[in-house]
Amino acid sequence: MDLNQSIRLLSSWIGQIGDLGLNLLWRFIHIVVSLWYIVSGIFEAIESYAISLGLNKKYSSIDLEKLRCLAVVVDIEAVQDVAKVVELLQWLTTIGVKQVGLFDSQGLLKKSKDLILETVPGSMLLEEIGKDFSPDGKRIALEFISSSDNKEAVMKAANILLQRYLKSSHPENDKGENFFTESHLNEALGVVGENVHVPDLLLVYGPIRSHLGFPAWRLRYTEIVHMGTLNYMRYGSLLKAIHKFTGVHQNYGT
Amino acid sequence: MLSLLCFLVSLLFLLLLPCLRPCFSAKGSLKDKKKIDEGTYVVGEEEPPKGLRRELMPRHVAVIMDGNRRWAKQAGLLTSQGYEAGAKRLIELAELCFKLGINTVSAFAFSTENWGRHKIEVKCLMYLFQRYLKSKIQFFQSKEIRVSVIGNLAKIPESLLGIITEIEDATKSYKKKHLILAIDYSGRFDILRACKSIVKKSEHGLIREKDVDETLFERELQTKCTEFPSPDLLIRTSGEQRISNFFLWQLAYTELFFSPVLWPDFDKDKLLDALASYQHRERRFGCQV
């Protein structure tokens, strides 16, 4: 009996020691992984500063031919600090980006439109520029977009197409193939006031990796890059993201 | 400096915590398991791995299965073998998703733009879909997985259409697990199709012009076949960071996870990483919290 009890006690102790050991191992692995992320974060920050200071020759000149239109999605909380948005736009102007679409879901940036245009040198509203816009020097065309330009705009455009279809004289068995094409919807979106400039690159500033309701119709082949929060934005990271985009090759499904 | 301080504090905490843990933990964990068994554990479903919470699982996961051809090239295999490996991976991961409590899994199998590929490659893909779907009908029935196929479907071969109809009919009664395959799908075409559908309904007096709003429009999209048309999480593999005309309308507030791994190599661990990343995000759907 005593022997059985001793064996049971011993095996219980061994079990607990083993348990503790495995736990310590798990914690150790956790520490190693956390350390890895901290170190890689430090390296990223150093790289970003090196790029900002022009120490990395690779980023000293970027060919922006592929980047005709860039869009920036800003998280609702970051939008409160317009100064950060202005700083970002100034950086983009320095880099040489000519056209930027600024999006926030609630339309707060639209309300700060005048302030932004006033503060960003060389900036102007995209809608005030003609189709043959080819800015010289450090000029940048801005477009302010919100959620109302997404699904609501498509609804309104769909209604326009519906009204046109109903008013037209068409045979009964007509399925509307001649009224509902991409170009018709593009045109109807233009009537509604929704610009159909398709961004080549979309930068998302916020804690979430989502485009937060950016106009869906425009996003077909847009490259999407998550940049982290606006509060911790870095010039080097921005330059790196744009440079990486210029090297991207798209098959467009073929 | 702050991150270094946080690291030192967490290191100290992590080292000391096991020493404070009660020694009779074995008994305690048995009690917990019994509680779990009685309360929340459902027979046939997998316990989420450590770090994942069942209540934070997405309801709908969408995947863009990119990288099959590159994978085959790297492995020295034929492109068709790459596609086959991709198909197997999809079924494997879909099954895992369902076990973890995810209701809907949708996959971008073939886009409208893919018709531009070499004819032989396209023919091979269509044949693969046909063969694979036919061979999996019993599997889907045994696992009670509903299968739906969305897309234009106008150009796909009759034989494949027949298999699609067969598999949809055979599995339409299942509710808890839904696999959606997008074949010959285009996000823009989906939106246009919804417009046409609304026009037809309006002509027949089924809806009025003023009734056309976002909710009604969403019900006309091809994702109306599922209870959760908007994916909570989109995974795209092979390092490309775009949605390539997939679910344009539906992805407004979807968490986007871009993985550098090629699709056939995107295994269970990578999926769990994606789910962990999703669960750590604070989704606000465009509103302020």
UniProtKB/TrEMBL annotation, chain A:
Compartments it resides in: Endoplasmic reticulum membrane
Tree of life domain: Eukaryota
CC cofactor: Mg(2+)
Keywords: Endoplasmic reticulum, Magnesium, Membrane, Transferase, Transmembrane, Transmembrane helix
InterPro entries, alphabetized: Nus1/NgBR (IPR038887), UPP_synth-like_sf (IPR036424)
Protein's pathway: Protein modification; protein glycosylation
EC number: 2.5.1.87
Ranges that cross the membrane: none
GO CC terms of this entry: dehydrodolichyl diphosphate synthase complex; endoplasmic reticulum membrane
UniProt GO molecular function: ditrans,polycis-polyprenyl diphosphate synthase [(2E,6E)-farnesyl diphosphate specific] activity
UniProt catalytic activity: n isopentenyl diphosphate + (2E,6E)-farnesyl diphosphate = a di-trans,poly-cis-polyprenyl diphosphate + n diphosphate
Assigned protein family: Belongs to the UPP synthase family.
Descriptive protein name: ditrans,polycis-polyprenyl diphosphate synthase [(2E,6E)-farnesyldiphosphate specific]
UniProtKB/TrEMBL annotation, chain B:
Keyword entries, A-Z: Signal, Transferase
GO biological process entries: plastid membrane organization; polyprenol biosynthetic process; response to cold
InterPro entries: UPP_synth-like (IPR001441), UPP_synth-like_CS (IPR018520), UPP_synth-like_sf (IPR036424)
PROSITE patterns: UPP_SYNTHASE (PS01066)
The keyword Signal belongs to this UniProt entry's keyword annotation: yes
E.C. code: 2.5.1.-
GO cellular component: chloroplast stroma
Annotated signal peptide: 1-25
Recorded coiled-coil stretches: none
Function description: Catalyzes cis-prenyl chain elongation to produce the polyprenyl backbone of dolichol, a glycosyl carrier-lipid required for the biosynthesis of several classes of glycoprotein.
Assigned protein family: Belongs to the UPP synthase family.
Protein name as it appears in the record: Alkyl transferase
Organism: Arabidopsis arenosa (Sand rock-cress)
